[in-house]
């Protein structure tokens, strides 16, 4: 019999009901035992929709449930630290939505709390779990595009008319760098396999959106002359792209962060040739759930325990650079 991780869902955000909860239910490794909201009416409705046995009207009640092994935290960014730490203290493994915290100090507290409690903590960058990532890394390692030189990443969408959106609340960790800029930032760290040395970021801060960064673009300097050039936004035309440039070629990934089964292709350019690669398709949310369970049951981790701290250090430095209008060294 396959061992199943028993999940509790802390909050009923759209990312939970639309992506992660269906992924757990369709995974080989997990089952949803309970869902909690700030009010029983909402959690009961979600539980009925998904056929979940238990619904709680508070997060505390869910954490007290001894039949739950792990929790998923899709709460607004400013609540991540509190509920990850409380979950760890309750002995629960934690999958927390990205960005994991408001800054690297909070992330370090969360990592320490989970380490001290002996529970697994993961930041929910689902795209990392898509099999295409390993295929990209294999091509880079093969030398087909030569030595790496730079990465260009973009992730923008336009939701500016919805001024009540929690992504537009500054104190809650709103803004494009937190919401979508973190994707190309994390992808560059992952594909370069090293940490940045300095950042220079320019942003559009909007008074009508609580002064969050609605658009940002920047340069992230990595060792040995490597660089990430990126832009992100919540007030621009919808688009995604990741371009990996080498001395002998380049890789273009049209849908780098949301790909599933049918849109996982990418293109390798070398000389005058263009090679389309139909990467292995998968639901990255299901892969994320299964990889999380594997880390809990076998100790096999896909991402290093300290990664969330390093990830938040880069995001916070980018935001500081945009606010200060200057280059900031990270070494």
From TrEMBL:
The keyword Oxidoreductase applies. Residues 5-123 form the Gfo/Idh/MocA-like oxidoreductase N-terminal domain. It comes from the Bacteria. Pfam families: GFO_IDH_MocA (PF01408), GFO_IDH_MocA_C3 (PF22725). GO terms for molecular function: oxidoreductase activity. Residues 134-252 form the GFO/IDH/MocA-like oxidoreductase domain. The keyword Manganese does not apply. Belongs to the Gfo/Idh/MocA family. This is Inositol 2-dehydrogenase/D-chiro-inositol 3-dehydrogenase. It comes from Paenibacillus pseudetheri.
